[in-house]
# Entry
Amino acid sequence: MMLRDLRETAGLSTTQVAEHLGSSQPKVSRIENAVSPVSRGDLLLMLNLYGITDPVEQDKVWQLARAGRERGWWNDFRDAITPSLSAYIGFESSATALQVWAWGIIPGLLQTEAYARALFAGDPARTEPEEVDRLVSARMARQTRVTKGELPLWVVLDESLLRRRIGGAEVLAEQLERLAEPLPGVTVQVLPSQVSWHPGLNGAFTIMEFGEFPTVAFREALTGDTPVEATVDVQRYTLAFDHLRAMALSPAESRDVTASAARELWKEQDK
# Structure
């Protein structure tokens, strides 16, 4: 979280912060990683220690922290989703716009149910069908704001995703058809495989805008999306995304390429 960046900028360790709070080092780490919520009192103590004393700036950080921990529909799935994913969804539910660079899989907000199920079922860490069912239900629920046109979404996809047969040819074909006919408020571009170098080579990421609150980036990792909130780092992600969409096919060209890939998959099925 932003708190970790502020602490590191101040040159402090989690142990020093814990001593200032009269708490434990693991608790500070859990707060920084959005695993445990932070109280307003602890937050103010931390911000004062980091030199953030302006009440307006303190309130902005508090509001952002609240956005990540507020109880929402996703809490009904806490038996299946991890605390870090729950925190991520909390931010996502408060965002006013998203920009996504998709490198390994189709973004969850655009996945069909069959594609999502194939992803979860193929994960060796998911062994129980009931858990897969819960995860799929949670993923479909996440899409509500997109399907209602309440969350503008701009996605740049690596072209390799049009060939990666998650769930098999039929599942991928249906997924590509969805991408080829994006909902209002959704823009999809495809970055051609011929582009040898681009600023997304280090992995997938998402940029979330919050209107009056600072923009936050999340970089994708095996154990969950890691927040990046330092202004200079978020600016680097924003610049990278601007370059990616400039290098990608236009939305119209991307629709054509995606629809063509879907047709090829259906032809295979008919043979």
Summary: The chain has a mean pLDDT of 89. The first strand starts at residue 97 and ends at 102.
